[in-house]
Amino acid sequence: MLTGYLISYSAVVGTVSGFMVGWIANRYESESRLLLHTSIATTLSIAALMYAPTLYGVVVFLTPLGISNAITRVCVTNLTLERGRGQETGALLGLGASVLSIARMLAPALGGIMQEVHMSGPAMLGAVCAVASVVLLLIVPQDNRTPALGESPVTRNPSASTAISANDAKLSNLGGKVQEERTETASLDTSRRSVKSE
């Protein structure tokens, strides 16, 4: 019965934190950075749960775990939609759902095997997987990704786009001045020729 209460509490925390995702995401310029921070929070929460001395400690550490999981799900979905272009979006969402289903199928079996080894085995395995995700996000930063097919390399870099636009405007003005000078030179040549003919 106690386990059921804990699972229900974790679900309630995740539901309530879902209403806070927008407010939290607005504090970040990059969703990939938010995903990295929530992954770190998940890792620390799982590690803390392994050493929680009392039931109250378990409840306390379940709170940040539920919040970080809710934010992570939203970040992953948004990044998937952002990376996909056109027909790619459906394929990416389907692939993500399939991978998540496989993970949910394998996790209980692996958790049971780890618990046969040690009582804290499932939490240790979860912490290892969380650490691996953090390391992967650090090695392959999502902000420096390769542009999608048909996407401009400066689409995700507003400052670079602004700088290029400013340079284009300068070149356009310079080209206009050069054209004006050529027109004036041609007019002078025509005038000189007409004077010589007279």
Description:
- The protein has 198 residues and is mostly helical.
- It has 2 domains: 2-144, MFS general substrate transporter like domains (Growth Hormone, Chain: A); 157-198.
- The protein is 81% helix and 0% strand.
- The chain is built from 7 helices and no strands.
- The chain has helices at 2-18, 21-25, 31-50, 55-83, 88-117, 121-139, 158-197.
- α1 packs across α4.
- The protein starts with a helix and ends with a helix.
- Mean pLDDT is 74; it is low at 146-161.
Strands, helices and their partners?
Layout (H helix, E strand, L loop, with lengths): L1 H17 L2 H5 L5 H20 L4 H29 L4 H30 L3 H19 L18 H40 L1
Helix pairs in contact: 1-4, 3-4, 3-6, 4-5, 5-6
Q: Which features characterize this protein?
A:
Growth Hormone, Chain: A, 2 domains, 81% helix, mainly alpha, elongated, 198 residues
How far apart, in Å, are the first and last alpha carbons?
A: 113 Å
Radius of gyration: 29 Å
By CATH, the topology of the largest domain is: Growth Hormone, Chain: A
Q: What percent of residues are in strands?
A: under 5%
